[in-house]
Amino acid sequence: MNFNFHMPTRVIMDEDCILKNSFVLKDIGHKALIVTGAKSAKKNGSLQDVTEALRKAGIDFVIYDKVMSNPTVNCVYEGAKYAKENLVDFVIGIGGGSPMDAAKAIALLAVQDKNKEELFSCSFENKVLPLVMVPTTAGTGSEVTPYSILTNDMAQTKTSISTPLIFPKLALLDPNYMKNLSLTVTVNTAMDALSHSIEGMLSVRSTTFSDMIATESIKRITQSLDKIQIGKGITSGSNITMDIREKLLYGSMLAGIVITHTGTSAVHSMGYSLTYFKNIDHGRANALLLPSFLRFVSKNEPLLVKRILLAMEMETTDEFETFFLHLLGEREKLTMDEIERFAGIAIQAKNIVNSRVVPDKEDIIQVYTRSLHL
Amino acid sequence: MNFNFHMPTRVIMDEDCILKNSFVLKDIGHKALIVTGAKSAKKNGSLQDVTEALRKAGIDFVIYDKVMSNPTVNCVYEGAKYAKENLVDFVIGIGGGSPMDAAKAIALLAVQDKNKEELFSCSFENKVLPLVMVPTTAGTGSEVTPYSILTNDMAQTKTSISTPLIFPKLALLDPNYMKNLSLTVTVNTAMDALSHSIEGMLSVRSTTFSDMIATESIKRITQSLDKIQIGKGITSGSNITMDIREKLLYGSMLAGIVITHTGTSAVHSMGYSLTYFKNIDHGRANALLLPSFLRFVSKNEPLLVKRILLAMEMETTDEFETFFLHLLGEREKLTMDEIERFAGIAIQAKNIVNSRVVPDKEDIIQVYTRSLHL
Fold first, then answer.
1. Radius of gyration of chain B from Cα atoms?
2. Which residues of B are less than 8 Å from A13 in CB distance?
3. Dist CA A175 CA A188 (whole Å)
4. CA torsion, points B193, B199, B201, B202, in degrees to nearest 10?
5. Where would a tag sit more exposed on chain B, N or C end, judged by fewer CB atoms within 10 A?
């Protein structure tokens, strides 16, 4: 039994946990840069809670609220410049994956001089501003990972920075901020988290420990998604109970711990082109590909796939596909030209070889075709 | 769903993991103090592996090998003096719970001036020497906890220092060092770990997350102990397979993560007197008390007890008791005078109130009586 476990982030999950734990922020720094998007953190109450907690703790702060979906490299350089100008000594990311991932890159670039070419090489000096994360969606798990995923226009895809330096010091999880998320965002982000845990189990780096966490995560998310399937009385995000919101947030955090140890695999590699070129939401992109990819894996690793299905209380890959098709509704379509091009990009991604059954280019084309050439 | 998770130690488990990871030690410090006991680390190969890894990494070291079982406060002051004299900048604990716990206290006292009265107050400045742990028994879980348990002659019991400062930076787990542990030590330490996970589930501080880990730990340890029950062909420690050794080491590390979050409970409070006054091994002391304590809890919390029994694949507290009685063999005896005295000490311990069903002094007397007044 070989394994490696390292996840140093302190995680606190509780309703109103930010205000209850304002004193904890005092130990982290004296002046914060809050990194967030233009709108959602203002609407869902998270920004107000954070600023109130900072005031209560006597901590000064400035706000950088220009993070877009799928943040670009330029955006994080701009944020880092703002951090330096304002002499902040820690960074708080509030939002979905985009602001949290941007916050991580900003915390690095605020104290390290790296040009755009060097940024993805992941060779950093041992310094970073401490990070606090407040997720406002339940999907990315970025609050407990050492990854920052940025849109890399040079490589025409999303590329990750991976270094233990950007493990957040503290993650504050309050399901209240998800109360008004739309049904679509809720489902897309939940499918992203589910994909993390499933891909974690399909990874060559999976361990007994990561599988235990992945199994628990898959159970929680599947049970929750099952309750919000179309036709079960839930017609909008506001119908979703706090109990489901909590389970999704817990499940996505667990999935973050999983990919911290296993990385993601071919599904993410293939999904990035759908987001980059077709503007398909990240979680949805994974979910579109997952059923066909699982079918591909099951040919070589049927027992491994059985374990995943068991956690979902399913028997077959058909059932698995039906589950996702219900959640996805009408699917996007790709031309064969697009598929050929995306497969060419995906096959070069570093997480392709992370899969226990490594697909070749032809396999990738088949998975894309079965999923999106309808 | 409220919870709090924090376990920043990097854990690497693998055969020969110390030599394979010597480069990791370079990032920790330049001169190490190795803290260990007089004999076992020399016999089981762990000390040699550590010194070889340090030499390979070009790290200087000195050795303090005077840690006795149930280390005293004097011992850790002596170790801290030695650390200061030798200007070490990190500490490596090798051994069972005793050397690891001593190493933690030494790492604190090497950089903080605290007298013996202040030591257990747990109010420290924010500084400590980094810690590396190499467990050579599978019981204490100290490699992943923020606790150091010392014999406190002033209070006539064992008392714990608890501070996140003493979370090890790195734990290196190699089951090879357990190969020649006697059957008695193997069983005693495994029962200690099992007690940690069970007490964790009985704690008011248990969470969904800690319960997941506790359940996995209880399963692994019970299955392993079941295989080394007397009469199943195993007559000495050397008959125990590496597979069982690995599961026990994994299970005890998980149990350490559990008590990091839940603390121990009344069983440990009661067990300390058995060790302090009757010289009964710590793990055995817990195991002697556990069946009667579980019976006591089951009156008020039958469903909670059912969950523990389920993880052990048992149906009743009778089965639970039979399992432990087989492992314990002939039990020690206490007089009613001793029981009265020990109950008086236990009722004052801080982890008594940690139990979901808090026993009063009369309950404690009954548990002692049922367990040891035979």
1. 20
2. 1-4
3. 17
4. 170
5. C
Vertex B131 angle, CA B130 and B134, to 5°: 160
Q: What are phi and psi of B251, to 5 degrees?
A: -65, -35
Compute the distance between CA of residue A267 and CA of residue A326 in angstroms, rounded to an integer: 19
Spatial neighbors of B55 by CB under 8 A, at least 6 apart, are none
Which ipTM was obtained for this model?
A: 0.92
Q: Whats the size of chain B, residue-wise?
A: 374
Local structure of B33: helix, strand or coil: strand
Whole-model pTM above 0.90? yes
CB pairs < 8 Å spanning A and B: 49
Neighbours of B327 (CB within 10 A): 19
Q: What distance separates the 2 farthest-apart alpha carbons in chain B?
A: 59
Cβ atoms B263, B205 nearer than 8 A: yes
By C-alpha distance, the chain A residue nearest B168 is A8
Residue A171, amino acid: A
A76: distance to nearest CA of chain B, Å? 27
- Alpha-helical segments (H) within A110-182: 116-119
Q: What is the pLDDT along chain A (374 residues), one digit of tens a residue?
A: 888 999 999 999 999 999 999 999 999 999 999 999 999 999 999 999 999 999 999 999 999 999 999 899 999 999 999 999 999 999 999 999 999 999 999 999 999 999 988 888 878 999 999 999 999 999 999 999 999 999 887 777 778 899 999 999 999 999 999 999 999 999 999 999 999 999 999 999 999 999 999 999 999 999 999 988 756 677 788 889 999 999 999 999 999 999 999 999 999 999 999 998 999 999 999 999 999 999 999 999 999 999 999 999 999 999 999 999 999 999 999 999 999 999 999 999 888 999 999 999 999 999 999 999 98
Distances (CA, A) of B296 to B168, B200, B267, B309: 35, 16, 11, 14
Question: Which DSSP state fits A68?
Answer: P
Single out the residue of B360, B178, B339, B352 nearest to residue B264, CA to CA: B352
Cβ atoms of A124 and A163 closer than 8 Å: yes
Sign of the alpha-carbon dihedral angle for A196, A202, A207, A208: positive
| Alpha helices, DSSP H, located in chain B | 17-20, 22-26, 40-43, 46-56, 73-85, 97-109, 116-119, 183-201, 208-227, 242-262, 266-278, 282-300, 302-311, 317-328, 336-346, 361-372
